[in-house]
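Homework-ish question, so no full write-ups if that breaks the rules, but can someone show me the predicted structure for this set?
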Amino acid sequence: MSSTLFLLQLLNGLQFGMVLFLVAAGLTLVFGVMDFINLAHGVQYTLGAYLTALCVAKFGHFGLGLVAGLLGALILGYVLEWLLFGVLMHRSHLEQVLGTFGVILVVTDGLKMLFGPAPLPLAVPEAFQWSVRLTPTLVYPAWRLAIMLAGVVLALVLWWLVAKTRLGMLVRAGSTDRETVSALGVNIDKLFRLVFAFGAVLAAFAGAMAGPLISIEPTMGDNILILAFVVIVVGGIGSVRGAFFAAILIGVVDTLGRAFLTGWLAGLVGKPAAASVGPALASMLIYILMALVLAVRPQGLFAGAGGK
Amino acid sequence: MNLKSLLMASALALPAFAAQAEPVKIGFMATLSGPSAALGVHMRNGFQLGMKELGNTLGGQPAEVIVVDDELKPDVGVAKAKGLIERDKVDVLTGIVFSNVMMAVSKVANDAGTITISTNAGPSPLAGKGCTANFFQISTQNDMNHEVMGKYAQDKGFKRVVLMAPNYQAGKDALAGFKRFYKGEVVDEMFTQLGQLDFSAEIAKISAASPDAIFTFMPGGMGVALVKQYDQAGLSKKIPFLSAFTVDETTLPATKEAAEGMFSGAQWAPNLDNAENKAFVAAYEKEFGAPPSLYASQGYDLAKLLDGALKATGGKVSDKAALRDAIAKAPFKSVRGAFKFNRNGFPVQDQFVVKAVKRADGQFVTESVAKVFTAHQDAYVGECPLK
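A: Not a homework solution, just the prediction itself:
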């Protein structure tokens, strides 16, 4: 195992972590701040990718398509909030789970009816169709670097918003004691709607950025949603900082596990055994990690550390 | 929900003797919902196009096709197969995309003595020890297209290859099929998670190993993601990408340029040079506005096979043994060219290497570049006790 290959895999893990963070950030805010379980958060990711792919196809320009796609996702997210989530907000967790799960089913089948079950095309924008050469055999695609950069910038913006602005202060206060903040004359519903819209756009952005890498199909949000839940559980529910570091941790552990675990096990238990155990264990690694975190620190790694 | 479409021919348009005839009933099962629905939709489109050309008759008899969705769930498949056999009393059960559904359904159909023609799934147990006289397979035994790629890699003189497939039975079977005809060095065998989104770790390993070629079986959305990421990593120009059931007309609309130049094993391609195929491709594109896939060609062949068999029995379906014998003779002209059934009911046919290309009209299609096997049969027929 060369050090360049290890470095490359580390970059891959970081980049995967960034996509996870963009999805998890909205989820953790909505869950932590509003105490609202939104299973339909993955739908925003799917809608972001679909709308961007459709708009890029229409305008023939990625940037323009991205902006239009995000705008569309924002509007749809707002409509969902207005129609359904505002009502579910004041209900029990079970009803929230049922209601938002219903949204997944409706949107998934709606997309299939409108655009068919086959995946939609979305290419990497031309400006990013190059790669960085690390060694004669190893290269790193520019688009993955762009995703990483966008993730870091958005994380900083989020941190600034939550930690340094009056709005962020209200969000933090609202997550601790909703009634008191409301009694102080803050329109808590409006605040939550804003947080929700922001989270929805982040998830849509993640979907749009991941679109050129993965297959844009109606069920694409389901896989990422499970990973996003793992991230917020590991990071501590409601903590944006926790979501950031947990997303990187999950991304890196998952990628390095897939890359090196089988080879490493082969030295330990022999090649045939490693070939059957390795891949299965690699796909379980992040769940084992989550179980460990839950056993040792059930509130998550960053909860309670003032890391909202 | 029962997706039931009735393609009943108008009895009025037919001569008087046919007016009283019971229509021939064909049950067609496919996965038409869920993330893997594209294959089933193509297969159904091909079949319905064939039926439309025949004026919804088979062997001159009015025919009724009942389409059901197995949802890629073996239990749902079994329940709906029972409905087709016991309630609708279909004369022939057809379709089925996925092997796990087929394994469950074939038992039900066999117990009821219903003739079954698989239009895609070709699991090895049904070709070997578990073969039965009532079971036919009109596409390929599952391993055959992987064998094509293994033979191709061997013929090309690729000395070192990397293999990659999802970590489940079909993935393992795919790699076994490849290795049956490939004798060079397998540098690495990678098993990925089913439904995996990001292949960066695997691609980096391939890149570092720099083999002469890679072979993969990565169906559906996984394949789309892999092809895009493989291309973005700059590997598609450097390390030949060999695959089966990964790059075809169901995924090319999503991958487009990224898949250009990638190779697949197949028993059919849109550019195969025979009159039936030319007519089929033209009619399909006119009807559905997109090029047909392997799966569509199989559905189309199914309609023509049924028509040929019923012509041979004079339109009668009551005598099961006669109908079975008629089907076994494969009395139709396949769009893939030479075709016959082996004694286990699986195809004996030519197999090709196809390449993804951009056509002059901008559509992405596969194109046959070399015939790898002539009159190829599956590896399991030796275990089949049927004569």
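Now go work out the reasoning yourself. Hint: The first helix of chain A runs from residue 3 to 34.
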